[in-house]
């Protein structure tokens, strides 16, 4: 099991906690797709797709890469990354045991 803190676990669950984002992941199972092709496949606007892709990419489920077409235009492709997601009580308990990002803040008091 990979060590994960509660913020990482929550972000991961939020990333896959959407029917649209699950549809995107399923659509990429057979290989990378160009953004426009992916937008047609999942039947959503490219603007909305970019938002969903950003969340999935931040969580590590996908990556994007730019390629030049024969005509010289930049094309953005979306690639599924290998992953396995297991959430059980042990995962949740371990996430709470990891130091939280907000607990590292400075707790010294100012004297006036």
Offer a quick outline of the entry.
With 112 residues, the chain is an alpha+beta fold. The protein is built from 5 helices and 3 strands.
How is this structure best described in words?
The chain is an alpha+beta fold and 112 residues long. The protein has five helices and three strands, in the order ααβααββα. A three-stranded antiparallel β-sheet has the order 1-3-2. Helix 1 (6-16) crosses helix 5 (89-97). It is elongated. The N and C termini lie far apart (48 Å). Residues 103-112 have low confidence and may be disordered.
Strand order of the largest sheet: 1-3-2
Radius of gyration: 19 Å
* Helical proportion, percent range: 40-55%
Uncertain regions spanning at least 5 consecutive residues: 103-112
Average pLDDT works out at 87
Shape by Cα distribution: elongated
Secondary structure elements and pairings:
Blueprint: H1 6-16, H2 19-27, E1 33-34, H3 35-42, H4 46-58, E2 62-68, E3 74-80, H5 89-97
Antiparallel strand pairs: 1-3, 2-3
List keywords for this structure.
112 residues, alpha+beta, 3-stranded antiparallel beta sheet, 5 helices, 14% strand, elongated, disordered C terminus
């Amino acid at each position: 099991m990979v060590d994960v803190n509660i913020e990482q676990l929550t972000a991961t669950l939020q990333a896959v906690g959407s029917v649209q984002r699950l549809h995107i992941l399923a659509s990429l199972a057979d290989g990378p797709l160009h953004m426009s092709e992916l937008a047609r496949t999942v039947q959503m606007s490219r603007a909305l797709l970019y938002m969903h892709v950003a969340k999935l990419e931040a969580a590590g489920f996908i990556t994007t890469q730019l390629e030049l077409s024969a005509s010289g235009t930049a094309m953005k492709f979306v690639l599924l990354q290998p992953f396995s997601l297991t959430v059980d009580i042990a995962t949740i308990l371990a996430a709470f045991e990891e130091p939280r990002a907000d607990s590292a803040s400075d707790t010294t008091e100012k004297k006036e």
